[in-house]
Amino acid sequence: MMSLNRRMILGASLVLAVFIALTALALERAFYDSARSARQERLLGQLYLLIAAAEVDGHGRLSMPESLSESRFSLPGSGLYAAVADQNGALLWRSPSALNSTAPFQAKLAPGDKRFESGADYFVHGLGVKWAVGRRHYAFTFSVSEDRAEFDAQIGRYRRSLWTWLAALSALLLLAQAGVLRWGLRPLRRVAGELNAIEAGRQENLQGAYPEEIQRLTDNLNSLLQHEREQRLRYRNALADLAHSLKT
What we know:
By secondary structure, the chain is an alpha+beta fold. The chain has four helices and seven strands, in the order H-E-E-E-E-E-E-E-H-H-H. It has helices at residues 4-53, 149-184, 186-200, 212-247; strands spanning 55-56, 62-63, 80-86, 91-94, 114-118, 122-133, 136-147.
């Protein structure tokens, strides 16, 4: 049968493992949501920069500057791409970084609508804009797309760091738990040692000072031992009297 010490260590280990796993999942999810929200806000800022840089003439023709404040839009394959579509979803402009790229964009959004999507390979953020030129209004959809490889690598680094630290913390907690259990169960081991001494005849009763939780047990054991000694003494006296009677 499994010892009490092993039972307690096994139970504590299972509880700790479940707690650490749930904590890791919660922290990982919180970090992911925070990082995703930060990426969304950053892309929205890029959209506002694109809108600020755009110009529309009286005929609704859109023009964009050759260089934008965000240098990644000018570098092919940089991982950050931009595009502008008209009210029908037809593409009017793409950033130089989007040349020979398969990055997706929001094709058609109603003025004022914002849409953020997280795909397998890209983050895509779009914003519908209604542009007033004189008495005329023109609708455009500004869209930015960012490769999520760097984001996934960031999440991977955080996950590895998190699980490494939690695993080390779990090992330390298990060692501390084993030490605490060993210290806490020491009175029971002393009781077992004294019982062995009583069985071997080296002492007559339990003599140590024990915590109040097991003091009643040791007192009852001493009472039982005293009763057993008194009973043996009565048997011995009775046998002695019987032997004496038989002789006389």
